[in-house]
Every structure is written in C-alpha cells, then in structure tokens.
Amino acid sequence: MTDSGRAIADYWDAAASSFDEEPDHGLRAAPTREAWARRVRGWLPAEPVDVLDVGCGTGSLAELVAAGGHRVTGVDVAPRMVARARAKLAAAGLAGRFLVGDAGAPPVRAGGFDVVLSRHVVWTLPDPERALRGWVRLLRPGGRLVLIEGRWREAGEPWAPYVAGAEHLPWGGGVGADELAAAVRPLVTDLRVEPLDGDAALWGGPVHDERYALVAER
C-alpha cells in the first residue's frame, strides 16, 4: 500500500467510532432505516443469494441484506469498521462474514457472488475503473452490480481533499451518474440508473447534490 493509501485507510479506521452518527450511515432513525431497507429489497433478488458488500463500513447495509435472508460477506480496509460490522450483525442475531481487505481488490474468489454491492466507495479508490472490472469478475453469470454513488458537491463547487493523498484520486469528491455509467457499460449487458437525491428519507433530510444507484447485470 502506498503512503497515500495508508493515510486514507487510517482515516477510515479512525472514523469508525463516529461513523454511525451520520443518519445514512448508522440508519438509527426508523424512517431512514426503512427507506434503505425498501431500496435494498428492490435491488436484490427475492430468493436468498450470495452478496458481497465492498467497503462495508460498519455493516449497516450488510445488516439489511442479511435481514432479508441473503448470505452476506463484507470487506473493508479499516479493521475498526470491520469489527463494528461484525458486532452489529451479531447483536441483531444475523449471520455475516467480514474481512479486512482492499475494496478495490477484495480477498474473495472470482465468480463467487450473485450481487456485488457498494455504497459511497468508488470515489475513494485510487484506480476505480480497475476495481469495477474486478468486481464484475466476482459475479456469477447473470449476477448483479449495485453501485450507490454520487457527487458530494454542487456543480462548480471546488472539492477539498479529506486527507493527504486524496487529491490524487481520479473520482475524489464523487462521480456523476453519466461518467460512472460510461465506465460500467462495456462490462455488463444491461444497466439502469435510479436517482436517489429526491428521497430525503434516505439521507435523514434533503440533499442538494447528485446521488443515485447504478444497477447493472452481468
């Protein structure tokens, strides 16, 4: 790992203790939790499947996935995030497997999953297009890629790097739906974009930047 990569990993590790204080991270408020649960149900198949949550953070989405009857594996570069994810599912009486590893190159076998899910992860990666190609290879034939992303500023606003080294990230500050779709489209057979910025319940209040889910089929 490069020095900048280590600084970024250390940042997220340090953020673990307060991460769930954000409404859309901890999903502690019932309306926010149900808004995400409803979306997750819509993105995943009805029958139980194997889901990889890359950049799982403290496991809030993984918990919703497991509560829906799916088999979930989470990967995160921050050991403290992974520890909290394990504890969160255990406290809920749910099964889940969590690994410390690079979301850009998860330590799991190719072709082992029906769904690869990520939320607000692509923008943190040093080589996001390489990661996208790798994620598609993790899918079984007919598998699904679900990317929840956005651009964390309004058009024209400058982006201030959140940690030293982040200024070199290709999509630092977020990536718009059109740009992400252009990168994913050659890798998949079908693709749709679902706007999320108009659903205030997802975020604990109104947002004014671009947020969306990109759902693609292998």
| Shape estimate | globular
Helix vs. strand class: alpha/beta
Order of helices and strands: HHHEHEHEEHEHEE
Distance between the termini: 30 Å
Q: Which consecutive residue ranges, at least 5 long each, have pLDDT under 50?
A: none
- Tell me the quaternary state: single chain
Strand order of the largest sheet: 3-2-1-4-5-7-6
- Counting structural domains, the number is 1
Q: In which range does the helix fraction lie?
A: 25-40%
Alpha-carbon Rg, integer: 16 Å
CATH C-level label: Alpha Beta
- Most strands sheet: 7 strands, mixed
Mean pLDDT: 93
* Topology-level CATH name: Rossmann fold
Number of helices: 7
Structure, briefly:
With 218 residues, the chain is an alpha/beta fold. It has one domain (3-217): Vaccinia Virus protein VP39 (Rossmann fold), CATH 3.40.50.150.
What does this structure look like?
The chain has helices at residues 3-19, 23-26, 30-43, 60-67, 79-91, 128-137, 177-184; strands at 50-54, 71-76, 97-100, 113-119, 139-151, 190-195, 210-217. It has 218 residues and is α/β, with parallel strands linked by helices. The chain has one domain: Rossmann fold (3-Layer(aba) Sandwich), CATH 3.40.50. The protein has a seven-stranded mixed β-sheet, with helices on both faces. Strand 1, helix 4 (60-67) and strand 2 form a beta-alpha-beta unit. Helix 1 runs parallel beside helix 5. The two termini are 30 Å apart. The model has no long low-confidence stretch (mean pLDDT 93).
